[in-house]
Design a protein that fits this description.
The protein is α/β, with parallel strands linked by helices and 421 residues long. It folds into two domains: 5-62 and 328-417, Alpha-Beta Complex (Aspartate Aminotransferase, domain 1); 63-325, Type I PLP-dependent aspartate aminotransferase-like (Major domain) (Aspartate Aminotransferase, domain 2). The protein is 35% helix and 17% strand. The protein binds pyridoxal-5'-phosphate (PLP).
């Protein structure tokens, strides 16, 4: 197949994400999107099963979001956030504070998830410094976790996923533990905290679902245990809801299912419903208060150039309008139901070891994927956009996907996995 000229020329000059450039499949030329459909240069269409890396929760080109962005574009696309305020950003901060549980009420805007996590880490470490407690510079993170690709966030990812041994010497060392899923692992974490609490600023975890680590689910009890252990030992709890936030697990935020409030929460991905880059780190009042003093060194020294971009914030506000006015909870429940019914038969297919669904996340886990490129190509040939990784094939569709569209996605997975590659 011959692609458009811009593709062939540009491919000599771009460096693709997560790709061994010598063997990676060439990317598909996408030219337009609408609803749940991505249209390619040759006119063919793919149903998007993963909502552009879990972002496009209301589908593509939603008229309400598009109107909000063009309206903001016409008046003021961007002004710096140092010394200048813009209405979309301040409105968004108030709305997020009102939506989030407890006194999570102070919003710091950034432009990507990794940076939001870095800001959360800085907040947690400086929280202790500002209170005169030096030495508390480490985090406790978990095997299977993913918190971003920048150097500081790699260090709190799963050691293998974060390539800790490859980058040895370049990454700071934190404590990587097992999630407290049972009595043994809870005792181990309790002991780790007891022994090293003077060096620990915070625990960081993705609540309910470890996404990029393989869509691994855990129960709300795990989060209650983490909140309890953080309180017992006096360390902060950071929840990274960059993937789980905004309805994906069935509640607006995953932490609501555990009835806990973290000290700091990070948000991105579906924050702008997949239209613009934006992220937020939200702190509870006591965390924010630890930065108030006469000492300029006690301030949070961070400020990305494009933070609180007015168009991105207008877009996030429009997405929140859709959440407020819509029936997303019913949609997510319906998606979960359909995925349970239609992915369950995969359990009998070769190499499948698990099928699991939580909210609008459906996962088929295999014991191995031998030829990832062949699997990706086979899915595309079925007219769907699904990106398997590690040992899993998964769906995280837009919440307003239709039943026939979702049916096409699950059928494609069943068909392709019936003939293992
Ligand atoms: C995607 C993701 C990140 C990183 O976000 P980027 O915008 O890619 O930097 C961090 N944490 C979680 C849980 C994520 O899913």
């Amino acid at each position: 197949m011959h692609g458009p000229q811009w593709l062939e020329r540009g491919m000599k000059h771009v460096w693709l994400p997560y790709a061994q450039m010598q063997t990676a499949l060439p990317p598909l030329p996408a030219v337009s999107t609408q609803g749940r459909t991505i249209t390619l240069a040759d006119g063919s269409e793919l149903i998007d099963g993963i909502a552009s890396w879990w972002t496009a929760c209301h589908g593509y080109n939603h008229p309400h979001i598009r109107a909000a962005v063009s309206d903001q574009l016409g008046r003021m696309p961007h002004v710096m956030f140092g010394g200048l305020a813009n209405a979309p950003a301040l409105t968004l901060a108030s709305r997020l504070a009102a939506m989030l549980p407890g006194d999570l009420e102070r919003v710091f805007f950034t432009d990507s998830g990794s940076v939001a996590v870095e800001v959360a880490m800085k907040m947690a470490i400086q929280y202790w410094l500002n209170r005169g407690r030096t030495g508390r510079t480490k985090l406790v993170a978990f095997r299977g976790g993913y918190h971003g690709d920048t150097m500081a966030t790699m260090a709190v990812c799963d050691p293998e996923e974060g390539m800790h041994s490859l980058y040895q010497g370049a990454l700071p060392e934190h404590f990587i533990a097992d999630l407290p899923v049972d009595a043994r692992s809870t005792r181990a974490l309790d002991a780790l905290l007891a022994q090293s609490v003077d060096n620990i600023a915070a625990i960081i975890v993705e609540p309910l679902v470890q996404g990029a680590g393989g869509m691994l689910f855990h129960s709300p009890d795990v989060l209650r245990t983490l909140r309890m252990l953080a309180d017992r030992h006096g360390v902060l709890l950071i929840l990274d809801e960059i993937f789980t936030g905004f309805g994906r697990t069935g509640s607006m935020f995953a932490c609501e299912q555990a009835g806990i409030v973290p000290d700091i929460i990070t948000l991105s991905k579906a924050l702008t419903a997949g239209t613009m880059a934006l992220a937020a780190t939200v702190a509870r009042r006591h965390v924010f208060d630890a930065f108030l003093s006469d000492n300029p060194m006690h301030a949070l020294m961070h400020g990305p150039t494009f933070m609180a971009n007015a168009m991105a914030c207008a877009c996030a506000n429009a997405s929140l309008d859709l959440f407020e006015g819509g029936d997303w909870q019913d949609q997510v429940a319906r998606i979960a139901q359909q995925m349970r019914t239609e992915l369950e038969p995969c359990r009998n297919l070769p190499h499948v070891v698990d099928v699991r669904v939580m909210g609008a996340i459906g996962v088929v886990e295999l014991d191995r994927i031998r030829d990832m490129n062949a699997l990706k190509a086979a899915l595309i040939a079925q007219g769907v956009w699904v990106r398997p990784f590690r040992h899993i094939v998964y769906l995280t569709p837009a919440f307003n996907i239709t039943a026939p569209e979702l049916g096409k996605l699950t059928a494609a997975i069943r068909t392709v996995l019936a003939h293992p590659v």
